[in-house]
User: Fold these one by one.
Assistant:
Number 1:
Amino acid sequence: MDVSRPVEVLDKMMDLARWWETPIGRRYGQVFVEVMAQREDYPALYSQPERFGAFQAFCLQRSLPYFVTDQMVDKIWEFSKGFDTLGFYPEEVPSPYGFMWLAKPVHILDAQGKIQVQRAITWVKQDDGVALVFYADKHDPLDEINVAMRADPKQDFAALPELTINHIQPIAWGDNTKFFEHDIDFARDYVRDHFSPGGSAYDAETILLAHREQFLFTRFLLACWEWMGYQLPSRALPHRQLAHRLGRSRLDAREVLVIDLQATERDRIPPATHQVVQWHYRWRSRPHKRHWVDKTGQHRVTDVRGCIKGPEGLPLVERDVLFNLRRGHAPV
C-alpha cells in the first residue's frame, strides 16, 4: 500500500476513521487494548477499552496529517541514532493530534522475533504524557504478522483496514529518549513481570530485542518532531474531488504537511503545493466534460457548465482560443 501524492494521505485518514467507528473496529480495538493493558501501566489510555475505537476515530478526525518522504525517513533515522534529550515535554509535540505517514516504511521485530512493518503513526497529547499508536501496512509482503493472519482461516483478514494497529506506546512527560533500553536490570525485570517464563512462543532475549527496537522507532518519531522544529514543512493541498470528499467527512484537516528537504532554488515550488497565479484578465470557459477516476477505481464523466473565470474587475477576453500549447514549444 502506497500513495503517489502526499494529499492521498487524507483518504487514508478518512478510511481508517470510518473503520474505527464500525462494530468490528470497536471490538477489535477493545480486545487489542485489553491485551496491552495486561503489560503496561497507563490508566489514562487503558481505563475504557470499549471506547478505544471511537477515541481513535475522534483523534483521526482532528489530526494534522504529515507526510515524510522516503529520503527523509532515511535521514531522520540516521539523525535519531545520536538524538537524545534530558526530558520530553508538551511543547515538543508539534500538534495536539497528529497522523504521520512514512513514504518508506520502517521494519522492526516484535516479541516473537517476527518482522513488523511500521507505516503510520498517530498521537494525542494527554494530561500525563503523549500516547502513540503505531500502524502496520496490511498488504506489505515483508510483514510476517499480517502474512500469518492472512493465512489463518480463523482470521477475517478482509475485514481489517489497510492500516492495522500493532502497538501502543505511552510516553510520560519528563521521559528521556533512552527510556529503559540501556538499563538491562530494569528491562529484565519488565520481561519477568509481564511475560510468562514458561511460554513457548516467547524468549526473554527476543522480547528485550523487540522492546529495544520499539523504543528506537519511538525515538525516530521524537527526532522527526525535533527535525520539524528546524525545517518548515511544505503544504500539499487536495484536488477538487478530494476537497469535496473532505467536505462530506468529519476530518478537520484540509491539507498535508510534507516533510522533505528544502528546495535549493529560491523560487522552486515543491510538488503538490498551492501556487497563487496573478491573472491579468477574465475569460469564458465553455461547457465540457471532465473525465476522472473515483476512489474505487471506476471511470467517471462529469458535465461542467460554462462560466466566467478570473478575478472580478479585470477585462474580459472574448476569444475562442486564449493560447495554443504545443508539446516541445512555447505557448503562442
Number 2:
Amino acid sequence: MKEKKLWYVITCLHKHVQLNEESTYLVRMVDDLGTARELMQSIYDDAEKGITGKHGVKYSDPKWLDEKHLKLQITSDININGWLHSTTTEIYQLSDDWNSNIFSNTSWILD
C-alpha cells in the first residue's frame, strides 16, 4: 500500500485588470508547513518592500485576506518601454492535500 503523505500547495489566482481575465496556476508544492508559511510570508515581505522582479514586474500592496495567513493578495505592475502598462491582482492561497490526490493517476478529478 502506498503511504499517504500530506503536501502543502501554494496556488495563485491571477486577475488581469486591463483585459478583465483570470487564470489560476500552481506556484509551489512543499512537504512541510513551516516552509510553506515562510514562502507565503516572503511574498508578503517582497510586495511590502515594493521589489521589482527579474522580469521588471513591481510588486506592492500586500493584504492578508484571512486571519491564519493562508490567503494573500498583492498587486503587480509592469511598464514596457513606457507605452505598455499591465496590472494584475494576484491572490496566493496555501492549502494542503494528500499525495494520493495530487499525484493520482486516476482518470477523474471529483470523487
